[in-house]
């Protein structure tokens, strides 16, 4: 089949087929293809290019070929999610990776996105990056009055909870004060964010905290 379609085209066909079929033949062809890549000395970067994972730019986490690449790089000595994070960090900064994670949380690779967020959080933790340093790293400090609607705010919340040292809501309130956002301004931010499906829970809990409920 590779001779007929070409290695690149066959890889894309199999990646799509995995999402639409559980045919044993498809899985067997995938295994044969992976074996062929290894025998021909294809590097992880080579396979990344064959699967055209870089063709969609920042949409790589929604690419149906991503699981095939992860399967290829996986080994007893290689954590495939860690390898994915390293690959993405070669091209993008952490705020962009965070945006990619959020935008793919309901896509075909949502399980991978969840694992990648945990790996990113672990990387920050290993480098002793504080909660507010991550806040700045994700450029949340530049969000101003749109902060509560920022889709990557939840990633910061998850990190603060993982660190188990601070209350994210208390850190937020402190930041609002430093940013010069008064009660009226904060009230408007909360009201707007409560209309947002993603961050509704953050705005609602913050409102309850501020009202003493």
- Report the structural category: mainly alpha
Mass-distribution shape: elongated
Low-confidence regions: 1-5
Extended strand count: 0
Estimated radius of gyration: 21 Å
Tell me the major beta sheet: none
Q: Total number of helical segments?
A: 13
Element order, helices and strands? HHHHHHHHHHHHH
End-to-end gap: 65 Å
Total discrete domains: 2
The chain-level mean pLDDT equals: 89
Q: Give the fraction of residues assigned to helices.
A: 55-70%
Protein architecture, described:
The chain is mainly α and about 210 residues long. The protein has two domains: about 1-90, no CATH class; about 130-213, no CATH class. It has helices spanning about 1-5, 5-20, 25-40, 45-50, 65-75, 80-90, 95-105, 110-125, 130-135, 155-165, 170-180, 185-195, 200-210. The longest helix is centred in the middle third of the chain and has 17 residues, at about 110-125.
Keywords:
elongated, 2 domains, mainly alpha, 0% strand, disordered N terminus, 213 residues
Give a brief rundown of this model.
The chain has 213 residues and is mainly α.
């Amino acid at each position: 089949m590779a001779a007929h379609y070409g290695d690149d085209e066959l890889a894309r066909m199999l990646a799509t087929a995995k999402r639409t079929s559980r045919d044993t033949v498809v899985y067997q062809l995938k295994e044969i293809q992976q074996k062929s890549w290894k025998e021909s000395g294809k590097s992880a970067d080579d396979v990344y290019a064959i699967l055209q994972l870089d063709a969609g730019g920042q949409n790589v986490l929604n690419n149906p070929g991503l699981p095939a690449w992860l399967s290829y790089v996986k080994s007893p000595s290689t954590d495939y999610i860690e390898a994915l994070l390293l690959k993405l960090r070669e091209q993008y900064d952490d705020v962009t990776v965070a945006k990619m994670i959020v935008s793919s949380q309901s896509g075909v690779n949502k399980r991978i996105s969840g694992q990648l967020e945990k790996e990113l959080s672990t990387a920050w933790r290993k480098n002793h990056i504080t909660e507010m340093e991550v806040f700045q790293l994700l450029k949340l400090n530049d969000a101003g009055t749109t902060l509560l609607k920022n889709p990557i705010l939840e990633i910061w919340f998850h990190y603060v909870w993982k660190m188990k040292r601070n209350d994210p809501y208390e850190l937020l309130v402190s930041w609002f004060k430093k940013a010069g956002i008064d009660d009226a301004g904060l009230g408007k931010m909360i009201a707007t964010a409560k209309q947002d499906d993603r961050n509704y829970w953050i705005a609602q809990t913050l409102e309850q905290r501020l009202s003493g409920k």
